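Researcher: Please generate the 3D structure of the following complex. Treat every line as part of one assembly.
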Amino acid sequence: MSEALGYAIPGIPYGCTFALVAIGLVLSYRSTGVFNFAFGAQAYAAAMVYAVLCSHGVPRGVAGIVAIVVISPVMGLLIDRFVFSRIASTNVAAKTIAAIGLMVGLPALATVVFGPTPVASPPSLLFNVNTVVFHLDGTPINGVQLSTVLVTLVVLFALTGTLRFTSLGLSMRAAVESPRLLRLEGVSSRSVSAAAWGTSSALAGLAGVLVAPRYATVSIDNYTILLVAAIAAAAIAGLSSMMIAAGASVVIGIIMGLTTGYAPANSVWSTGLFSAIPFVLLLGLLAFSKRMRALGVSEDPMAGIDPPPRPVVVPLRSMVLDSSIKTAGPLVLVVGFISVLTWVPSAWTFALTSGLALALVFMSITLVTGAAGQVSLCQATFAGVGAFTAGQLATNHGVPIMTGAIAGALAAAAAGLIAVLPALRLRGLALSLSTLTFALLADAIAFPTAWIGGPPTGLTVPRPMLGSISFATDSTKAFFVLVVAIVIVVGFLVRRLLVGSTGRVLQASKLSPVATAGLGFSPTKTKIAVFGISAGVAGIGGALYGSLLQVVSPGNFTYADSLLFVVIVVTVGATTVAGAIEAGIAFAVLTQVATYLPDRMAPMSIVAILFSLGAFAYGRHPEGVVERLRRSAAATADGVLSRLGAGTSPHPEVAK
Amino acid sequence: MSTPRLRATGLTKRFGGLVAVDGVSLEVASGECLGLIGPNGAGKTTVFALIAGEIEADAGSVELDGRPVGSLAPHLRARRGIARTYQRLEVFSEMTVLEHLLVAQEAHRGSTGVVRDLIGRGAPTPDELGRAHDVLVRVGIDDLAASVVGSLSLGTCRLVELARALVTSPSVLLADEPSSGLDSKETAVVGELLGSLRDEGLAIILVEHDLSLVGRVTDRVLVINLGRSIALGTFDEVMATAPVRAAYLGVST
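Model: Done. Output below.
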């Protein structure tokens, strides 16, 4: 018994930090309707501010106040003002993608501001990390643990009191029921929303600062578990009761403490299982809890008076634009292709080849997000399955790499089916969370296993041989040609799906799931088909990408890559195959340009920030930045022409 | 009268403490138009949702041609021939009118169409295009085939929904306030259309607030109030009964 307590007690303070984020999730979801899963990133950003201030000799009390009471709420208010309030009336996919943009952009911003060197963990907010303050039933309680529990209790009671006894609290509770009714009562819902964002962000910041001293450095990966556990706790509480969310968080913390204690030390179970518990819990809740399935569906009794969703930009191109793209597009492609084969330096050829391999992974996002309107957060995982399958078959079984790549695509398609199984009844936000959980499980358990992800030194994925033609290192140009050919074939097939009956039915289902089901459309069957095909396409892309790199490791295909990929694709253009290819090339070019910048500028983080800014605009410009730029350029050209007396009228051709 | 095409027995749905539909039974035969009327909040749309399978009934059964369909998912009921329009519009706002009718036929087919698309046979067949055109002519919106539905008026959107339902050749049509948002001329067209569809053998259940339209096209009328059936008979009969007058006019008898 006392052994169990010894394992359980350290879990309590851990659970307390989950509780802070879980309460923030419930509070902001109920009063603003946004399920902000960027709280993990916000907690990380607050922890960075705190750690950097402490390392510069600022007293920890002052640093804590700056990070928690000043920076975090301001960050929350800015996010509300400039991201979510601007897309309040758009669909769930747009809000989800905005949150993903934050998950990608905030840590990148922290890296740019504070530099790429890892920041050492800060001191505990109260007491001392290494001091054992007292023993509880023989279990030593150190400063971090005690301060975490104390601070959480104080904050919980202060928050409950505020919500119960102040007029602001009354308004916030009313906003939980119906923000629209509240507005009709003459209360500014903007100030209520600001209060909710400020408070919940401060809670996330507090959790971040409290967790930071537990690890050697302040790293974003440690905050993912915090987020997932908090989401699970919020789900248990039905996204409505803060007290139940807090209680559930502590229970999750205790369960994690117990499993860590009883799992054999230094086994994959002690590291993998420990981190997997909240993920498995969340997957189960998503699959079985009705409340979680309806996540993002409004329960506001006055939701019916909502104005209809803003009409999406009509997918028209002007005649000038359309004809100029049709003539200039192929010309640019041919010139580019010949250039790569003749004068382009090999580093750039390599970068462009990687961009084209990634374009296949991006096409898989086009299918799921652009066509079906669902946001999958495990496409990099599918790419990983493709690469690892091809590599394992080639290295250990002598299978030719191109055969291996096809096997990789099939394995990835199978993984796609496994990923979609718990999500069959899910859509919108719940589906995104479920796929995120799948990616995290793969990162924590599957990919580190040697027979999947290869040895710690990396898994060799050879370049192909076609007869006597080798595509090995010295002939990256040949490999480039091969990848171009595969991108053309796969892109052609994906385009057929997008513009054919599949794309049409998927679009209809995205616009009105009720009506499409009422016409006989089976959402389950199509979801399985789309996920399977999409994962297969990602698998081919992953295998080619692996073959280009020649050595891959689990670090090449993490959940963070999935997030970044989604952000890149929606920024450049998520509705067309051309958009996916442009996204691949854009990413390759920016990555290559970034290599010319000094490391201290954290150039890759700058690239990530640029793309995440595009994700915020997705709600209003689902056609993507490139298409938007083309259109505004064409509009300008049109304006000039009409002033010269040669105007053109719009041409009703759909831009697909 | 021939055997009923659709029969619902004892349909009951509770939302928490509120019994929205309480033991409603109805049947409609081929070539018959049943009116379903009642004051706002009576549970008419909920009855439609229960028949179409969008929400699960707490009790009661639904039979189509004598076979139970009450446990089937909405898309399977649709494929057996139940089509509906919606009180709160459910159009595909970014798609054209013609695309609505193509999607309806593709969705109704049941297969996902993925393989056909991949082998390059994803384009709509002349047969599908022809049927879509015929239905558009019939509903009177063939000149709008290329219009994006999000740009059309509410009344026209209702006609698009009606056309979309009809293009799947249903055996039962659940029409939920097809005339709301239409002007009197358009309403007359819809009335004539419903009448001729009925004469061709379609079983129609019509939820409608325009009582003159109900009087014109329905054979029988079921009146519900607060989730319960309170009268069944011809339009003139039910409008003369005391409970119906009380429900509509609020006078106690």
